[in-house]
Amino acid sequence: MEIRPLTRHDAEAFSRLRREALQTEPLAFTESLVEHQAKSREQIAVSLGSGQEENFVVGAFKDTELVGITGFFRLPKEKTRHKGCIWGVYIKPGFRGKGVAQSLLQTVLEQARPQPGLEQIILAVSTGRAAARKLYLSLGFEPYCVEPHALKVDGVYVDEEWMSLDV
User: How many CB atoms lie within 10 A of CB 4?
Assistant: First the structure.
């Protein structure tokens, strides 16, 4: 398994896997399939190849197939710059339970931690996602609140548990 930051050359593979995630797990992600499909391949390539060290996506590859993704972004405003956010963790079903998500998250944490002024990393996990929650707890994330009705998907409300990790 190769774990590495994605570049603009990975745009097609990223878009395909992100589309799969949004189709198969719509209650787990803030972005909708429609919103993702509205982005052009060039927009995705530009965001992956922006060269911004503060915002990046990491992928897990089995041979040449992208099987897992997660992203990180630094909050941009002056008063929130001390925080970063992990987003979009998704592993193809056949690769779950094999340490892929843990490897992806450890890589994200290793890449994010040295950022000057970064003090805290946050993430949200949809309630009912026991395996994801267990993984985040094992990496040192601590829950700090539950946001009721954080998402509304086809009339179904989803609560999200927010977790943080001091860097």
Answer: 11
Q: What is the DSSP string of 61-123?
A: EETTEEEEEEEEEE--SGGGTTEEEEEEEEE-GGGTTTTHHHHHHHHHHHHHTTSTT--EEEE
pLDDT (0 to 100) of residue 112: 94
CA-to-CA distance for 63 and 18, rounded, in angstroms?
19
Q: What burial class does residue 57 get, using C-beta atoms within 10 Å of its C-beta: 0-12 exposed, 13-18 middle, 19+ buried?
A: buried
What single-letter amino acid sits at 83?
K
What lies within 8 Å, CB to CB, of 6 at 6+ separation is: 14, 48, 56, 57, 58, 59, 69
pLDDT by 10-residue block (mean), the chain, 167 residues:
91 92 92 85 76 84 95 92 95 94 96 94 94 96 97 94 96
- With a threshold of 0.70, does the pTM exceed it? yes
The pLDDT assigned to 53 comes to 78
Max distance between CA atoms of the chain, in angstroms, equals: 42
The type of residue at 9 is H
> Sheet of 83-91: strands edge to edge?
2-5, 56-62, 65-74, 83-91, 120-126, 156-166, 142-153
